[in-house]
Amino acid sequence: MPPRQREPRRGPGGPGRPGRPTAPPVAARPAALALVTLLSFASRFHRLPEPPHVCWDETHFGKMGSYYINRTFFFDVHPPLGKMLIGLAGYLSGYDGTFPFQKPGDRYEQHNYMGMRGFCAFLGSCLVPFAYLTVLELSKSLPAALLTAFILIFDTGCITLSQYILLDPILMFFLMGAVLSMVKCNSCADRPFSASWWFWLSLTGVNLAGAMGVKFVGLFVVLLVGLNTIYDLWDLLGNLSLSLVMFGKHLLARVLCLIVLPLALYTAMFAVHFAVLNKSGPGDGFFSSAFQSQLIGNNLHNVSIPEHLAYGSVITMKNLRMAGGYLHSHWHLYPEGIGARQQQVTAYLHKDLNNLWIIKKHDSDTDLSDPLSPVEFVRHGDIIRLEHKETSRNLHSHQHEAPLTRKHFQVTGYGINGTGDSNDFWRIEVVGRKTGKLIKVLRSQIRLIHVATGCILGSSGKTLPKWGWEQVEVTCTPYLKETPNSLWNFEDHINPKLPNISLDVLKPSFAEILLESHMVMIRGNSGLKPKDNEVTSKPWHWPINYQGLRFSGVNETDYRVYLLGNPVIWWLNLVTMGLYFLITVCTAVALKRGVQLTYELKELSGVVLRGGGQITLGWLLHYLPFFMMGRVLYFHHYFPAMLFSSMLTGITWDSLLKFCAGFLSPSTTARKVYGGVFLALVLLILYSFYLFHPLSYGMIGPMASDPSSPMAGLRWMDSWEF
C-alpha cells in the first residue's frame, strides 16, 4: 500500500478549496454591496452645500457649464463631455447660467449650484461600488472587495475631489466603468457571443468613449483595455480547437465594440458640442477665421467678402498659433536700446483698426484703389509689400535682434507714405500650393519670407513689457521649421473691385473642425504653465502624499478645505505596492531557478499575481506617463492611479492574511486570526478618517502650525499646509 500523501494546509476560507479564496455566499453579496454603496453616498453628500462659494477649479468648470446653458462658444484644453454633462446637470436642476464664476471665494448667493455639485458627487459615489465589484470579480473574495471599498469610502482625498464641480469624478466614473466592464467581459470568456458577453463588451466601449471624452488621460484606460484585448486574442489564436472563422468573429466583435463604437460616440460628442455652442464667445480667437465665421455674433458671421486676394486689398492677418493674435502696428516706436528705434509691430488679440494692412506690389507705387485699374490677383510665390493702413509704414525686418526672443530678427514699421527700402519685401507662400496659384481668404495658410534675410514672419507668443502695451511679440525667425507660430491666414478682406461671396462657401467641414479643435487642445495642453502662487507638484510626490492642494481658504478666519489623501490609506497603498512587486520578483526568481514552491506559496502568488496583474498594469499606465509630460502637473492627477493602488491593496492584504493564517490550526483559529487582523485594518482606516475628516468637510480656526489648533498634532509632514 503506497504511503499516504500529505494533505495541503487549508486556509481560513474553509474546506472547500484549500488555501484559496472561495466565492462569498450569494446572500452576502447584495447586502455588502448595499452597505458600501450607502456609505459611499453618505460620505460624498455629507455637507455638500458647504462652502457656499466657488472652490478651486469650480471657477473654470462651473463657468463652462454656464457657457453650455447660454450656448456661448469657449475654449478648453479638454474634450467636451465632462463640461457638457455639468452644464446639463445645472440646466436640469434649475440653474440659469448667469453666475459669473469669476474667482474662488465668490459666494453663490441665490444661484442654484447644488445640481452641478450633486451630479459630480453622484458619479464620485459610484466609484466605490464599481471598485468593490471589480475586486470581487478578480479575487472572488468578499473581504478583499470590502477592504477596497472601505479604503475608497474613507479616503479624504477621494471625498474632497467628488464634492465639487470638477471633471475628476466624471473621468474616474467612466474609467472605473471601463475597468469593471472589461473584467466582467473577461468572466464571460467561457460563453462568448452570449447576451451578457455582448453587453459587457459594448459597455466597455461606451465607457472608453466617456473617459476619452472627458480628458485626454482617458487614453490610459484605452491602452489598458487594448492590452487586455491583445492578450485575449493571442490566447484565442493559440487555441487549436478554435477555427479561423470563429477567431475572425472574435476579432470583428472587438473591433466593432472597442474601436468603432467608442470612436463613433467620441465624434458624436463633438458634433453635439459644436451644435450647442453656436454663439460667439471668449473661445473664438483660439480658432481659425473660417471656423469663427460660423458663430452667431462674430464679426465674420453672415458676411460677404472677396474670395481671392488681390493687390490693393485691405486685409487683416491672423496668426495660427493658439491665441497668436492679428498682425498689428501703431504710432509708438521701440524704445532706445531695443533694436532699431522704428515703429512697433506686434500681434494683438482683439479687433482693431490698427490691424489693417494694404497689400501692394514690391516694385510699384501704382494706386491700385483706382476703380479703372485692372484687378491683379496675388499668387503663391509673389514678392509683395505690406503697408500699414493707419500709419502708411511698410512691414519691415532687418538683422537687429528681436525685443524678447534671442536669435530672432526685429520686425518694425518703416518708410514714409509707403516708400521704404528692400527690407520691406516679402515673398508670400501658401502651405501645400504650387507657384502661381491664387490665395484664398480664410482658408489658405500662408507664410511671409523676408527676401533680404530669408527669415519667416511669426508670433513668438511672448508678452511685451508696458512699452509694447503688453501685446504679443512679432519676430522674423531664421529657423525655417514650420510651426503654427509662423503661419497666418487672411481674415478681413476689403476690395471694392472684386465680387463678394458669402463665407458659407468657405465653411469648413465637420472633419476639418474636428481636426482643428484637437490641434488647438493639444497645443493648449502642452502650453499650460502654472499661475502665480499656484501649488504644483511632481509625480514622485503623489504616492507618498507629500503635498496637498488648497480648495478653499487660506487664513484661519476662512472656511478651509484641503485636498490631501488619508495618510494611513495612502501609505498602506504604498507599502502594498512594494509587497506586490516583492512577491512578483521572488516568484519569478524562484521559477527561473527551478525552485519547487510549496502549495501555499503557489496559491499566494497565483491569487495575488492573477488578480493583481491587471490592476498593477492599470496603476503603471495611469502613473508613469506623467514623468514624461512637459506640462504643469498637480496632485489631483494621481487619483485615477490611486483607484488602482487601492484595489491592489484589497487583493494583496486579503491574500497575505489568508496565507499567514493558513499555517494555524485548527481552521477556526485561522479564521479568528484572519478576521481579527482584517478588522484591525478596517478600524485603523476608520480612526484615521476620524482624525483627518476636517480636511474634506471644512475647518475654521487656527492653522495646523498653531499649537492651539485641533489639527496641530496631525501635521505629520512639513509640506502639508492645512
**Average pLDDT, to the nearest integer?**
87
Shape estimate:
elongated
Tell me the strand order in the biggest sheet. 10-9-6-5-2-13
Number of distinct beta strands: 16
Question: Structural class, judged by helices and strands?
Answer: alpha+beta
* Span of the ends, CA to CA: 73 Å
- If helices are DSSP runs of H or I spanning 4 or more residues, what is the number of helices? 17
Uncertain runs are 1-22
Oligomer: single chain
Number of individual domains: 2
Rg, nearest Å = 32 Å
Strand proportion, as a percent range, falls in: 5-15%
Query: Which sheet architecture does the biggest sheet show?
Result: 6 strands, antiparallel
How is this structure best described in words?
The protein is an alpha+beta fold and 722 residues long. The protein has two domains: 33-271 and 542-714, no CATH class; 304-502, Trefoil (Acidic Fibroblast Growth Factor, subunit A) (Trefoil). The chain has 17 helices and 16 strands. It has helices at residues 28-45, 58-70, 81-92, 114-139, 142-153, 156-162, 168-187, 195-214, 219-237, 244-276, 289-292, 510-526, 567-592, 599-623, 639-661, 667-692, 694-697, and strands spanning 304-306, 314-319, 326-333, 343-348, 357-361, 383-388, 394-401, 409-414, 426-430, 446-450, 456-463, 472-477, 488-494, 500-502, 549-552, 561-563. A six-stranded antiparallel beta sheet has the order 10-9-6-5-2-13, with no helix packed on it. Strand 7 and strand 8 form a beta hairpin. Helix 4 packs antiparallel against helix 5, helix 4 packs across helix 6 (156-162) and helix 14 (599-623) runs antiparallel to helix 15. The radius of gyration is 32 Å and the shape is elongated.
